[in-house]
Amino acid sequence: MIRKAVLPVAGFGTRCLPASKAIPKEMITIVDRPVIQYVVNEAVAAGIRDIVLVTHASKSAIENHFDKHFELEATLEAKGKQELLDELRAIVPKGVNIISVRQPEPLGLGHAVLCARPVIGDSEPFAVLLPDVLVDDEGLARNDLAGMIDAFEATGRTQLMVEEVDWATVHKYGIVSPEGEPPAAGQSCRLAGVVEKPAREQAPSNLAVIGRYVLPGSIFSLLAETPPGAGDEIQLTDAIETLRQRDGVDAWRMCGKTYDCGHQLGYLEATLVYARRHPRFGEGFRELMARYSRAE
Prior knowledge:
By secondary structure, the chain is α/β, with parallel strands linked by helices.
């Protein structure tokens, strides 16, 4: 069972400026909790128990969020605010470890993953979750990450989570080229390759890689030998392509839906979706939406 996940959170979040100038983009809230909390919850729900944050000196707020705040908890307990106290204590579920390592230089996603090597080791498979993306599992018996982990354990092959996107937007994504027919939702298939941001007429499919990976520990030795690529950075996709040629790589087609919280409209959509069904604020939020809809 895969128990470890890497969350690269060292980036400056330039797509979220000016909001991310002083606040880590991962700490921007969706309703009542930061984006990073939803991503950690996704990993925990899939059976992950060790969360490795690859972070930067400017991102201490993320580490503080997952640390115990003894004074605050004592104050809430003294005031009898048990519900809030329980929420704080549930941020890191029992049996889950939050581990931080530093990425000293911004040398790319591949380098960020490589920074987790001392914690993960070379013999153990692990997941990578990009915290810009929320994967919504509402209505699913098990989340997509759990399904992707199952697919890895059944095949032994690297898994990339993919989502169907509109053909008109394929030029914005890394698009997979399946071997044979594309997989059905909740299934995986072997890949012939990945095409970065293809023109519509050159796209091999409309299945986009969306920031969830399950990788073997052997990826680390490949990353260590991978020369800088696009943007003069060490690219995770370059090492994955080496794995594909050597061992094969699969695409797992997700059942849920994603929200790109690194983009303002994606963030706003996620806020709408999560607020509408929030157990405490959902009813009031729906009333607000109805009121403003009538005003228009």
